[in-house]
Amino acid sequence: MIITIQNTLNTNRSFETVTINLESQNLTVDKKSFFIEDIETGEKLISQVIDEDNDGKFDVILFQPEIPANSERKFYIKTGAISQERDSIPACYSRFVPERTDDYAWENNRVAFRTYGPRAQEMIESNIDGGTLSSGIDAWLKKVEYPIINKWYKKETSNTGSYHDDTGEGLDNFHVGMSRGVGGIAKKVDSTYYISKNFTEWKTLFNGPIRTSFILEYASWDAGGKKISEKKKISLDYGSNLSKFEITLKGTDTISAGLTLHEQNGIITMNDEFTWVSYWEPHDDSELGTGIVVPNNTMVGHEHYVTNIQDASNLFAHIASEDTIITYYAGFGWKKSGQFQNKNEWNEYLQHFSEGLKNPLLVQVQ
């Protein structure tokens, strides 16, 4: 089979994941039976076969072609197996972390994140030291492209070091508290933002060289008399600074995704045309950008929300649901990683990301 991919933008495209539905092509596959080959160069691209609908059958193949501006390239789907992984631990990796209370953490070659589970909440509510009460999203600031989650947790739990100290790979010096961190959600009723507590259940869907994906479920929570339930499907692709959030909501048809304002000494940018918001701030001895990009023109507003309540000041993007699903992308860029040197570079990244969502690669299989 031949895949033709066309880029209609005036910019080169890379690290954008192409999804091919194998079932629609009447292909029955196992995990390693297919790969992608560039017709012109003969290069075998790293790809990942996944069970997207979680029915026990592999039905989708993912890969990331490089397509120059205003051009198209052709690829074969071929049978056979090639070595796919970049490392023994997949480049796009997530897992539940019972050895550190009950975090859930995820990463790729550029960024890492975590959030907090029911035991961490129970410890706070029972006045036990070491707990965390937050549905915010924590950012782990990494400098290296290889996986660090397991290594950092091991040194923290074995008392051989701390992920709060930078020994060359980066560190966790991002404060979340009750804030939304990098993309946590809230519901505004009148003038008050209401939030959920920690996740109650988790499920890892898959890890791999192109994408990791998992599900977090939350107990229903009250928002000024509205009962809201949420289930988050979070995915992170190779080469992306932004996690994708697909949240199934009941009890509201709008929600707000937030970025913590920390010391409120950063620079806010809001782009209504391309529906993204950005916060660039001083961060210890460096600088940090956080951002939210909303696809499908579903961003219906935003708010620079400042309050005297500790950790409750956030930059919010207001998002409308599509068939009970809220979709957005949220992430960060750290100056010390070498990926972005200033606010302009970070905002340019968010702009290009949004342009790519509005003008997806055109894919034809024949």
Which structural class is indicated by helix and strand composition?
mainly beta
Low-confidence stretches: none
Main β-sheet, in a few words?
Answer: 9 strands, antiparallel
Terminal-residue CA separation? 6 Å
**Number of structurally distinct domains:** 2
Our estimate of the beta-strand percent is 35-45%
| CA-based gyration radius | 20 Å
Share of helix among residues?
Answer: under 10%
Provide the residue-averaged pLDDT: 95
Tally the helices. Answer: 3
Summarize the structure.
The protein is mainly beta and 366 residues long. The chain has 2 domains: 2-81, Golgi alpha-mannosidase II (Immunoglobulin-like), CATH 2.60.40.1180; 93-357, Distorted Sandwich (Beta-galactosidase, Chain A, domain 5), CATH 2.70.98.
Give an overview in words.
The protein is mainly β and 366 residues long. It has 2 domains: 2-81, Golgi alpha-mannosidase II (Immunoglobulin-like), CATH 2.60.40; 93-357, Beta-galactosidase, Chain A, domain 5 (Distorted Sandwich). It is built from 3 helices and 27 strands. The protein has helices at residues 118-125, 149-157, 343-358, and strands at 2-7, 18-21, 34-38, 44-45, 47-50, 60-63, 71-79, 93-97, 103-107, 112-115, 138-142, 170-171, 182-189, 192-194, 199-206, 211-218, 221-223, 226-237, 242-250, 254-260, 267-271, 276-283, 286-293, 299-305, 314-320, 325-334, 362-365. The strands form 5 sheets. Strands 15, 16, 17, 18, 19, 21, 22, 23 and 26 form a 9-stranded antiparallel sheet that branches. Strand 3 (34-38) and strand 4 (44-45) form a beta hairpin. The model has no long low-confidence stretch (mean pLDDT 95).
